[in-house]
Amino acid sequence: MPAPSALRLRLSSCPTLLFALPRSHVPPPVPSSLPRFFSTTHSAATSSTAEPLISIASATISRQVPGSGVPRPIFRDLDWRVEEHQRWAVVGPVGSGKSSLGELLVGRHHVSPPESVAFPALEEEVMGGSQPFRLVSFKEDSGLFSYSKHYYQERYHWTDAWTDVSLRSFLEAGLPEGAGTQNRVEQVAKRMGIAGLLAMSFLKMSNGQVRRARIARAVLVGARVVVLDEPFMGLDPPNRLDVSSLLGSLTDPSASPPLHVLLLLRPQDPLPEWITHVLVLDAMRVAWRGERAGYVAAFPENHQDAAVTGRDASPVSISRARRESREQLPDVVKMENVRVSYSGVPILRDVDWSVKRGDRWALVGANGSGKSTLLSLITGDNPQSYANRISLFGVPRGSGESIWEIKTRIGLVSPEVHFYFHEPMPAERVVAMGLPAGTPKEEGEERVQRIMREFEQEHVKGRMWAHLSVGEQRVLLLMRSLISDPELIIWDEPFQGLDPSLVSLVNKWIERHLREDQTLIFVTHSEEEMPAVVDRRLRLDQGMVVEVV
């Protein structure tokens, strides 16, 4: 019997199995684990050269719009070819199509014609019943753990052991039971730097820890290609280098079979040394493709972080006259000897902090230094705020104040708020959620239109939250936090997912519109992204205040 022909894996909106084989050959069945837009086609091998990992030629990629029977095109005439030995990064601003391209690779979008997208080098995995691509995304939910089944404050409260999901159970889910799996999980967790967290509740893990866990999960389930959507988001500089080095080690070409890591990055994100090729997207089109050296030469502005806002990373300062005058202003936040611990492990140690009305603070520190915990005490989401000497807007915590009334005076954006937001609504309604209760309809609509115009986001009106990119979602949350002119604005890593032009636009808005009596607390790992109005800084290290400027 003649040898079977080479297989070609393709995407299709109508899965079919086509054959160009002798009648005597019976092909294996299409595995049930294939995504609904996958199909396979047999065709004769025409070359002895290595098969490409990804082959996209003149493809039209479309997204299904709820309530409409007609898919909406998101890419037209898309061309891209990835060879086995290449290591690619896809770079582009907000709305460029990075996330949509990643979703395409895991079968979430329609392709026309079906044969225009193929993964020839991965045919054995697919016909064997496995899914070779895994997408690790900031907005990812899964059957293993869904943020939509939890609420934001829950991460600071007691957790029911019967319903909780530990990191170990998250990593082991669906894998064969036994000592072999346990050992492999521990080895991969150690390699990812999360071995000491295996017993920890997945719900209580930090942003950076969750990212490492999702990468580990992708490795454990046998993915051949791991697509990482902005993997450095929310990481401090040392952790960025650590994760970058780790990802490079995962792509060792001598491994059998080798693991491919495809990065989806913003223009200002660091480009790891192990990346060999870059695809640049802009407005759902390919703007540039080529080798790393050519990209660095063609886009030098992407490697000048300080150009994000025009502000350098020098220490903030405040004049002596301003310092003396601010002492006469009322406290918005007052903390005295604040301590927080979990299971006997100290998270915050003897923190004293006075935030006056009109202050503009930068809260800085490495991942795990206690910044998010400190903010949770201010917002009232952490029950340990009632066991400490904390006052907000001059009212001591625990004196009978309504936490919900206090929240109406705060505009909050954080990675956790973004994680837990799953409302099925159009963009303008997300922004309108920040309006004060009782705002007349016409006034509310006018305010929403005005701020969306000022943030240059009118093009997303009418689009559903779930269909927006991470960056587009984050801008909506920023507008929602500002639309009511709150007395206190708390922005924890507000620019995750935003490109330099949007960072600059938002900062200029803050510099123009922030009232003298409004207070700002700004958390970031990139000091060059801070608004120019920030003139005070508190630095945490291992839960202790080590610098106040």
Topology at a glance:
Layout: E1 7-11, E2 17-18, E3 38-42, E4 54-63, E5 72-82, E6 88-91, H1 98-105, E7 110-112, E8 117-118, H2 123-127, E9 133-136, H3 167-172, H4 179-191, H5 207-220, E10 225-229, H6 237-250, E11 260-265, E12 277-282, E13 285-291, H7 292-298, H8 320-326, E14 331-342, E15 345-356, E16 360-364, H9 371-379, E17 389-392, E18 395-396, H10 403-407, E19 410-413, H11 415-419, H12 427-432, H13 441-454, H14 470-482, E20 488-492, H15 500-513, E21 519-523, E22 536-541, E23 544-548
Parallel strand pairs: 2-3, 6-11, 6-12, 9-10, 10-11, 16-21, 16-22, 19-20, 20-21
Antiparallel strand pairs: 1-3, 4-5, 4-7, 4-8, 12-13, 14-15, 14-17, 17-18, 22-23
Helix pairs in contact: 4-5
Briefly say what this structure is.
By secondary structure, the chain is an alpha/beta fold. The chain contains 15 helices and 23 strands.
Q: CATH superfamily of the domain at 320-548, called what?
A: P-loop containing nucleotide triphosphate hydrolases
Structure classification:
alpha/beta
Task: Give me the CATH fold name of the domain at 320-548.
Answer: Rossmann fold
Could you tell me the number of beta strands? 23
Computed CA radius of gyration, to the nearest angstrom: 25 Å
Q: Which CATH C-level class of the domain at 320-548 is it?
A: Alpha Beta
Low-confidence stretches: 1-48, 141-153, 158-162, 305-315
Helical run tally = 15
Q: What form results from the Cα inertia axes? A: globular
Strand content: 15-25%
What is the CA–CA distance across the termini? 80 Å
Describe the biggest sheet?
6 strands, mixed
Helix content estimate: 25-40%
* Mean pLDDT level: 82
Largest sheet: spatial strand order: 9-10-11-6-12-13
CATH A-level architecture of the domain at 320-548: 3-Layer(aba) Sandwich
